[in-house]
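Chapter review: from sequence to fold.
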Amino acid sequence: MDALGNPLTIVSAAGQVHDLTGADALLVGLKAKSLLADKACDAGKRVIEPLTAAGQTAVIPPKKNRLTPRQYDKVLYEARHPIENFFRWVNRCRAIATRYDKTARSFRAAFQMTAVLCWLN
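The token string follows.
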């Protein structure tokens, strides 16, 4: 997503896998200075350490069960609002929210079409 909440890359994963599976694919070649993500991506070795090694900032709130809570920029984290709005907007499309499509290919095509409509708005 860019700063306005418009999608830049779409990665498909199985419905039962964790969010980090998609994060692994998106972190490769990340050109942004900082990554804003939710608590699901609070994984030191998989997300935070590679970003720090690349000189990028991880703006990810710590999970509640973390023994040593990390600090994060709360003001910058508020910039996730447009991204969350995009996902709320996508979920208004009933076929995507309930995944009516039988194949991953047709679901991805419907999601890409929704992303195009987002860019046109």
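Two observations follow directly from the output. The chain has one domain: 19-120. The longest helix spans residues 104-120.
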